[in-house]
Design goal:
It is built from ten helices and 18 strands. By secondary structure, the chain is of the alpha/beta class. It folds into two domains: about 140 residues, 3-Layer(aba) Sandwich (Cytidine Deaminase, domain 2), CATH 3.40.140.10; about 210 residues, Dihydrofolate Reductase, subunit A (3-Layer(aba) Sandwich), CATH 3.40.430.10.
Length: about 375
């Protein structure tokens, strides 16, 4: 039986601080993980840092710069295992060793193949005390897409839905602007901003001509997520907003369709067919190979239902507006018919929050 390490209250305080720092990179670090670091001696914080974006220094480097010589013999609290390889920046494990820190507390191990325990081993080989697992669940949740891509070889799929109290997403004629209020629509922009890609389908493009871009208030920084459109027959028209230069766009199509002239310049990838659509599992693996950590899905009931039915929807963000649209309105999801109640899709609610006049539920599969 493995004994879990004991961490005193002060360790929890410093690691919670490091996690808050890491969250500063929520919209900017992709495809890298969000990482924070605190260097402290007792209750005195000597240096702090967080990773702002790919290619820039890691959290440990910023914290060590701030701590200076006082880092010698101190404790470093890091939300993710320090890297041990030369990538776009030098190894953080080497920097911690050179600074002479006496102890390193790590929230979560890094499964990235070029790290995967190597950072921990390098620190221990240098005689530094290393403890693992403090607030591991919170650290993994903050980087849920990164862990999904590395460990499952596909991104974390978050499906955004909005409905009336009677479960409708629009009128029978297709009109759906707007079911929810301004606060909920602004809230959606935060989910878009934290994502590596926004996934939709050609049906939504043809019906609504959406921009599928991020609009944050003020000068909030973000890395524009890639727009990925499932367009089996390449029906996206010239002049569609998703073809503009506001964000990169990929069209995923069947491998046996001709490419029309107006789409010759657009990034495209062929995906094998699966019945009347594309193979969604293959789509997800394609995304994983393209360094996509979190996918934000905004689409109609067919694609959203297909993702849930295929077991590929990891999370649903459901906004419920206090309005009624009537029984002829459009449904939330198109799902296969069930023979009995025992076959129903079970979801668990992980969060409930009021957003303006609307209610936001965060749901994950499993009862």
């Amino acid at each position: 039986m493995t004994t879990r390490p004991f961490f005193p209250a002060l360790d929890h305080v410093h690691m919670a601080h490091a996690l808050r720092l890491a969250a500063n990179g929520l919209h900017t670090t992709q495809p890298n993980p969000r990482v924070g670091c605190v260097i402290a001696r007792g209750d005195t914080v000597l240096g702090t840092g967080w990773h702002p974006r790919a290619g820039e220094p890691h959290a440990e480097v910023f914290a060590l710069r701030e701590a200076g010589e006082s880092a010698r013999g101190a404790t470093a609290y890091v939300t993710l295992e320090p890297c041990a390889h030369h990538g776009r920046t030098p190894p953080c494990a080497d920097a911690l060793i050179a600074a002479g820190v006496g102890r390193v507390v790590i929230a979560a191990e890094d499964p990235f193949p070029q790290v995967d325990g190597a950072g921990i081993a390098k620190l221990r080989d240098a005689g530094i005390g290393v403890q693992l697992g403090l607030m591991r669940d919170q650290a993994r949740e903050l980087n849920i897409g990164f862990f999904s891509r590395i460990e499952r070889h596909r991104p974390w799929v978050r499906v955004k839905l909005a409905m009336s109290l009677d479960g409708r997403t629009g009128l029978a004629n297709g009109e759906s602007k707007w079911i929810t209020g301004e606060d909920a629509r602004a809230d959606v922009q935060r989910y878009r901003a934290r994502s590596s890609a926004i996934l939709s389908a050609s049906g939504t493009v043809l019906a609504d001509n959406p921009h599928l871009t991020v609009r944050l208030p003020g000068d909030d920084a973000f890395v524009a997520p890639m727009r990925v459109i499932l367009d089996r027959e390449l029906k996206t028209p010239a002049g569609a907003h998703v073809l503009d230069d506001a964000a990169p766009t990929w069209l995923l199509h069947a491998d046996d369709v001709a490419v029309p002239a107006h789409l010759q310049h657009v990034k495209r990838a062929a995906i094998r067919r699966d019945g009347d659509g594309l193979d969604l599992a293959a789509v997800m693996h394609w995304m994983g190979r393209h360094d996509i950590n979190e996918v934000h899905v905004e689409a109609g009931p067919t694609l959203c239902g297909a993702l849930l039915a295929a077991g590929l929807a990891d999370e649903m963000i459901l906004y419920i507006a206090p309005v009624l649209l009537g029984h002829t309105g459009r449904p939330l999801l198109n799902l296969p018919p069930l023979d009995d109640m025992a076959s129903r899709w079970k979801l668990r609610t992980t969060e409930r929050r009021q957003v303006g006049d609307d209610m936001r539920l965060t749901l994950r599969p499993g009862g």
